[in-house]
TrEMBL record:
Name the record gives this protein: Signal recognition particle receptor FtsY
Reactions listed under catalytic activity: GTP + H2O = GDP + phosphate + H(+)
Subunit (UniProt): Part of the signal recognition particle protein translocation system, which is composed of SRP and FtsY.
Bilayer-spanning residue ranges: none
Molecular function in Gene Ontology: GTP binding; GTPase activity; signal recognition particle binding
Amino acid sequence: MSLFKKIFSKEKKETLDKGLEKSKTSFFDKLSKAVAGKSKVDDDVLDDLEEVLVTSDVGVNTTLKIIERIEQRVAKDKYLGTDELNQILREEIAGLLSEIDSGNATQFEVPERSGPHVIMVVGVNGVGKTTTIGKLAYQFKKAGKKVVLGAADTFRAAAIDQLQIWADRTDVPIIKQSMGSDPASVAFDTLQSAVNQNADVVLIDTAGRLHNKVNLMNELSKVKRVMQKVIPDAPHDVLLVLDGSTGQNAFEQAKQFTNATEVTSLAVTKLDGTAKGGVVIGISDQFKIPVKYIGVGEGVEDLQVFNKFEFVDSFFK
């Protein structure tokens, strides 16, 4: 298929292949058992395939859509061999992801605008939120952008300290206050500083607790309102970070956060340490929110821009 022409550099592609190795191996082990001894894609094979997709964390609703697409292919082509199943899956999942207006970028870039592009980063503690912010700061700076960090997760001292480490490592300025300070105040100071420094990108860390959705909603709404006193249309992107290794729990977190605030993009981390990479397909489809970044390793270069064609190509290689 022309969709699958090589887009990434050889190094990036190798990192992606390696990061998805556990997910791919697990998926194909299940798939080969499901079609063992069968030559034709029939109802039995489709039933088994449905189970393989669900147990690979693709999610029930997305799995049903994929099965329906394959049923249509079978009806149209009259006969499909199980040896063709890999290619058909690859094409149909890429087609499904193509219906979401996202995941086709290859570089770390932000829209051109007259002032800083403000990204507010949300997500529960432990998903890799602060690490993702640090890696984004590194990647944007490497792309020639002037970056400012805002430590608005004032709920945990460790969050401020961790972001400071990343600021030092990437040599970008950080705006912070003491633990327990008003997060909105930190966000306000960060945006003022970014405007004064003619920054290109602002990354605002936020508290990651979900024990009370109303409190979270109120806090994030306040942070947004205060930011808009400095930059009227900020934030330009609300990036939700999800831990891919938690599988179905990542779906639940996405549901909670999309109910609590307007999420405009997603980052899925820790895909290299898990066999649950299928969650990226399900989350992309179910929430209709673009997955912008995926984490496929611990190194700073291992946070990648999500490209749906490269992802599907690596997953079904």
